Amino acid sequence: MLKKTFMALAVAGTVVIAGCGGGGGGGDGGSSTPKTRNDVVGPLDGLQGGLSSEILTPLHTAVAGTPLVGVVDCLDQSVVNDILDIADAIVLGIGPGAANPAAQLSATAANVQAEVTDLVADLQGLVGSLAGTTGCLANAGPQAGSGNPLAGTPLAALGAQLLPVLNQVQGQLGSAAPGSLSLGQISGLLGQVAQAFNGATGAIPPGVANAPVIGGVLDVVSQALADVQLTVAAAGTGNPTTAATQLTATVEHLLDGLLTQVIPIGLIENTSGQPDLVSGPIQAAIDQFTAALSGGLGSLAPAGLGNALVDPLGALLTPLQGDLLPLILDPIRAAISGGAGGGSIPVLTGTPLDGVLATLTGVLSGGAGGDPLTSLLGSLLGGLGGGGGGGVTCPLAGTPLAGLCGILGG
Questions:
Q1: DSSP, residue by residue, 61-106
Q2: If we measure between CA atoms, which residue out of 174, 177, 62 comes closest to residue 110?
Q3: Nearby residues of 297 by Cβ (< 8 Å), 6 or more positions away
Q4: Residue 376 lies in a domain
Q5: Which one, of 334, 328, 336, 323, lies nearest residue 375 by Cα?
C-alpha cells in the first residue's frame, strides 16, 4: 500500500497529508493575509509525503495535546516542505537534455526565491512554537512581531539572534519582485539565516541541545539550513554536477537527522551505551536511497527519477513506520495521555515545553536499568532473528534493516 502511495506521489507530484502538511501547498489557514504557501512539484514529492505521513505525523500524534506538536509541525513545514521544495526546484534544473545547462539551473531561481520566502516565515513560526505560543501558519504568512517570545528563558539567544535576521531577510525578499533575485543573491540571504541560526543554537545550554526531540529538531534545522545554502550556491555556479553532489548530501543529512535524532534513536542508543547499533543499519538504508538519487540526477527525466526513488524510499520507511516507530512512540503517547511525570518539572527550556520533555525523558530513560534499547526495542531486536526451532520471524527480515534482527540476543 505504501509503495503504491509513493508511486502515485512520484508520478502525479501530488501530496495529501493529514496532520503535519508536508510536501505540498497549504491553504491560508484563515489568515487575513492573502499569501498562499508555495509548492514545487517534482521528483522529491514522494520523499516529502513519506517523511511527513510516515514519520512526522506519527510523532505529531504521539505528542498530541502538548506544546511539542507545534514544534513538530514547524519542522515539517520548514524542512520537509520548504527546504525539500528548494531541493526539488534545483533537481528540475539539473534535469537532462538542456541545450544550456547553466541557463536551466538559473531558471530555477524564481521557485527557489518563493520557497525561501516561505522558509523565513516558517522559521519565525518555529521560534514561536519553541516558546509554546504561536506556530507555523498554513499559508506561510509573515510573522514578524515585536519582542522575543523566548526572552528570559534558556532559549533566549535563539530569538534574540535569529529573529532580527529573519525580519531583515523577510524585508529584502518582500521588497524584491517575484523571480527577480539570482541564485547567488538567494544563497547570500540563506547564508545570513544559516549563520544566525547556527550561532544562536551554539548558545543554547547542553540540557536543551540534548533534550529528546527538541535537540534533534534544532540539529536538523541547523544542518539543513547550512546544506541548502551550499546547494543553492552550487546551483548558482551553473555546474549541474556540483549542484547534484551538494543536493545529494543535503538529502542524506536531512534523512539521518529526522530518522535518528528527531525520532530519538540516537538518544536511546547512547543512553544504553550502544551507539550506532540501530542507526547504523538505518544509515545504510539511507545510503541506498541517496545512491538512487545521485545516480538519477542529471540522467533521468523528472518522472523517471521520481519512479526510481519509489522502491528505495519504501524499503527505508516501511519497516521504520510499521515496526520500529510504534515501539518508541506508543509508550510516549501512553505516558502523555496518562499524565506521567508529576511532581517538580526540571527547567530545560523555561517554556511550556518542559512538562512534555520531562515525560519523554522518563519514557526514554530505560527505567531502573537505564537500558531503553532493551526496554523499548527488545521485543523487535532480541531473539527474533532466527535460530530455528519454530522461532518467530523477524518483521524486518527481507528489508535493508534485516541486520537488526536478533542483535540484542535472546
A1: HHTTTSTHHHHHHHHIIIIIIIIHHHHHHHHHHH-TT-SSHHHHHH
A2: 177
A3: 91, 94, 240, 244, 247, 248, 305
A4: no
A5: 328
Is-contact 374 272, C-beta < 8 A?
A: yes
Amino acid at 144: A
Q: What is the pLDDT of residues 107-119, one digit of tens each?
A: 999 999 999 999 9
Alpha-carbon torsion, ordered 26, 31, 32, 37, to 10 deg: -20
The grid cell for 158 is: 535563539
Please name the residues in contact with 38: beta carbons below 8 A apart, sequence gap of 6 or more. Answer: 25, 85, 111, 114, 115, 117, 118, 140
**pTM given for the model:** 0.89
Q: What pLDDT sits at residue 396?
A: 81
In a domain, 245, yes or no: yes
Angstrom distance (rounded) from CA 234 to CA 246 = 7
Cell of 71: 514544534
Contact (Cβ atoms closer than 8 angstroms) between residue 394 and residue 405: yes
**Does 190 fall in a domain?**
yes
pLDDT digits (tens, 9 = 90+) for 130-186: 999 889 999 998 886 778 999 999 999 999 999 999 999 999 999 999 999 999 999
- Which residues form the domain of 112? 57-335
For residue 22, is pLDDT > 90?
Answer: no
Instruction: Answer with the residue of higher pLDDT: 339 or 392.
Output: 339
Which sign does the torsion angle of CA 74, 77, 78, 84 carry? Answer: positive
Residue 373 has pLDDT above 50, yes or no: yes
Q: Which three cell numbers stand for residue 145?
A: 512581531
The pLDDT score that the predictor gives to residue 270 is 93
Grid cell at residue 144: 514578524
CA distance readout (Å), 355 to 341, 352, 377: 8, 6, 25
Phi and psi at residue 297, to the nearest 5°: -65, 125
**Site of grid cell 550506532:** 276
Q: How many domains does the chain have?
A: 1
Q: Is residue 33, in this structure, part of any structural domain at all?
A: no
Q: Give ∠ CA 236-126-198 in degrees, rounded to 5.
A: 55
Residues 258-286 have pLDDT tens digits of 999 999 999 999 999 999 989 999 999 99
